[in-house]
Amino acid sequence: MNFTPTLLSAALLLATSAMAQKPETVDLWPTNQVFNAIPNEAVQEKAETGKDGILRISDVKVPTITAFLPPKNKATGAGIMICPGGGYALLAYGHEGEEMAKWFNERGIAAFVLKNRLPDDRTQTNKHEVPLADAMQGMKLIRQNAAKWNVDPNRLGVIGFSAGGHLAATLSTHYHRGASASEEAKPNFAILMYPVVTFGEKAHAGSRERLLGKNASPEQVAYYSNELQVDAKTPPTFLVHAEDDKAVPVENSIDYYLALKKFNIPAEMHLYPTGGHGYALRTKGKGSLEGWPAACENWLKSMGLLDKK
Fold first, then answer.
1. Phi and psi (nearest 5°) for 27?
2. Is residue 176 part of a domain?
3. How far apart are CA 269 and CA 251, in angstroms?
4. Does residue 309 lie in a domain region?
5. pTM for this structure?
6. Does residue 189 sit within a domain?
7. 199-209 burial string, b = 16+ CB within 10 Å, else e?
8. 240 with 270: CB under 8 angstroms?
9. Residue 1 has what pLDDT?
10. Residue 282 is part of a domain; what is its CATH number?
């Protein structure tokens, strides 16, 4: 078949528009201005892929966001920042980050994987402040680059898994608190996957200790128990949890849901009898849990996030 120059240009344009753009990684903070950072060359970032094929990252010193953008002809204008889990000790960056980004891209939603720092006295002052500061900075950067990344700054959410769910819930309930309060850091919606929510009786002890240390005060525990920090400004939220989760008790999601309802915040929660913890999209053979992505897609649709604006 022979193409005229005009037809060839049109074909190339069509092919380009149908392709997802190459991911772009951006540092959260200017060089030498990383929030609460302590220089320590003895600590170096590690990235390892396990036998399960999951990329895990630890000892992060230079936090980033990586933009995964859908094809321009498919983009709805909605965007979401992804917070991988890992008990505040590492980031399950592969299946709870990159794999989820591709899932959102397939639905026209721009995805931004957060590589936040984990609490570490060796490289940070006031380590309990650091993950939230990175998450807030991530949301600000996405909004500041909204035109570049073809996203609507009023249709920007957050999703978090396990301890990343705690970070997403903390962002949802603390963006307007403290010295760094900023409306620019507010998510317009949130998705919490088997999230750590409370640091009280049903806490994931490892996450609490990593963030607050072994001797946290009752005030600190309450401040980072996000079911106690929900207010009228908390964004609409979608929650997923398995009832047989041995790592993070299902009450974490239930109590957050009830707190949202107390303030009449739109909320949808899906509890499944089996499924365990840490599955993300890897749900094959986990019974009815296999349906959570479809339920989430329906929720996104009901929120108007799959419609082009």
1. -65, 140
2. yes
3. 12
4. no
5. 0.93
6. yes
7. bbebbbeebbb
8. yes
9. 46
10. 3.40.50.1820
